[in-house]
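USER: Fancy drafting a protein?

ASSISTANT:
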Amino acid sequence: MQLSAGNIEHGIVTARPDQMYGWPGICCTKDGTIVVSASERIHHVGPLGRVVVMRSADEGATWSLPQEVFNSEIDDRDASLRTHPDGTLILTSFSSTDWVPYIKEGVYPGGCPVPERWLSQWQARIERMGLSEELPSVPWLIRSEDGGHIWGPPVDTPTGQHAGPGILNDGRLIYVGTGPMREADISTEAKYEIKVSVWESRDKGDTWTKISEIPRSKEMPREMLIIENHLVEASPGHLVVMFRSEACAWDDMFHYQSHSHDSGRTWTAPEKVPVWGGPPHLAVLSSGALLCTYGSRRDPLSIRAMLSYDEGKTWDHENFITLYELPVAHDFGYPVSVEVAPGKLVTVYYVNKKYALRNDKFTYLTHAEDAGGILSSRWTLK
């Protein structure tokens, strides 16, 4: 099997001119319905994010309107979706106050002023809630037993990150992360010593046990962090987790990957995958191959896909295909994919046209009329 650039159909999952949609998740229900989650919000950083889901019963050709599934007083973001072997949908997210310092000062990172039409409203919310500083993020999960129509109450989780936990074929949840934290409380030196912990749940997320840590690779520069990971079970007991890296140098932001051959009890040190960008999303295909989709935020800015034919030991990264290329540089990425039939895939990702991207810096576009949204690529493997 080789990646083919043919038969790519682009579409829109959801979009509104007055909203941003970001950081999607995706899964299939047992009846084949595709469910996509996203954070709906006014701005990339702000207090008004809520978690919504959209459904498609025709392999991604059309989509339902967004349905709210969680909306707290603070910012709910980075919603991920997985399907448990018994059919339960598990959605993970985290609620954040990392916007508080920016709203108090009225200036976003990079020097962009917070628009006046939002600033007074958001500052009033800070005062009403008694927030004087950023608090630790609160990770949680919710579950649906009916394909994503009705969702249960939130359950706290011991860690939280963009892609949520992996679900093994036997129903166990494996969550890889660094735990909730407040960035302001971590010195630069301490940040480099943070351990990547691995947690296990045998009851669909009600209780968790820490089972291991992933060792730090000696080949990684000290100032590099591995963040935003995605985990799959490539074969029984063989777990593959791939990380996005965050480094002091823009050109050093490669993927890193670690393996466990005992269902997460021990791990190899992360090794560099010669692919720049991220974050990665993995999927085990019906053929046995592993698919990785990721965003490349340097020219040409694009959503890409690559395959591994040996359970992630090597990747055919030189023969990647481009699923979507941005005509103009914007805030975008975080693709997630699902196989709806053998060799037939749907990949969704976000494009935020309220920001322009130049090198590694974002500039807020105050007069952007089209905010972008969650977009899709329907494509096939040959």
The CA atoms of residues 103 and 120 lie 9 Å apart. The radius of gyration is 20 Å. Residues 9-98+134-380 form a domain with the Neuraminidase fold (CATH 2.120.10.10). The chain has one domain: 9-98+134-380.
